Amino acid sequence: MGSLRTVATRADPREVKLTERIVVIEEEAIPGIADLVEGRPGDDPREIASVLLQRANEVDIGSPISRGPERYLSIVERIRRRKLVKDLGSRQFSLDWLSFHVPAGASGRLKVKHIRKETFGATLKVLGFGFGAGRSLSLAVEDDFGERGECMRMQRTFEGHFRAFEDRAGKPYIQVDVVKVLSDDQNSSAKCDHCGIGVLPQTSFPPVAESAIDVRKDPHGRAISQVTSLDENKEFEISLPISFPGFKVTPAIVFKRIVQLECTYSYTLPGGYCYTPYRNGDGWKDLPFWLRT
Question: What's the pLDDT score for residue 164?
Fold first, then answer.
């Protein structure tokens, strides 16, 4: 049985000349469970369950491999007996995958490169809830983002197709199919929803403080530099800030980030302040955000 994924673009990362900041080495479609079930209307449910189990092993997102054939049999039945309520059309949404934060009044610089040249620097997988389809991107990342006085976020913007269904018990849910990657976005902003002066903004996650850099009694300030490795494979469920009139159900996706990056970052911190780096206690490993007091 062949691969379930459709390869759109593919290249060897060792052969790519990094003349661009971020190069898409490979882009793939991730088949949705609903598509696979509805594409086999006359097939035996146990045969389809076997196909879904194979899919779980291949796509490595959203569907734990520990699910057995019996679990997938129930999914096949649920999809076959559901009812389409409304096609909600297409919407865009953006996801952050790497951030670099600069303390208020300071300046910073970030350089990134692969930990190992023969591997991808980052792989991003996005899969829609409600048995939807997704996309997978493998990126070569090697760049110097330059001196800056504002926080920066790296994002990808996707197009999703949204449909409302009811299961056999009448419970509504929204199927999200991630159908297209629209853009690679690099955004800078002096107003950051993570960093703060005096107090941190309210966040949906627990901020975890690290050792402060206190130069309140030194008008000369301080210059610091650090090298850290982001080597992590983790996924999260994310509710999308999208609403549809008449439906109280919030659409959601699963977002998986696999990174193998070496990050060198430096800051020039003006004197007279205390700078405290923070991390997201519930999130994936990332570069720090800052509180200046």
Answer: 97
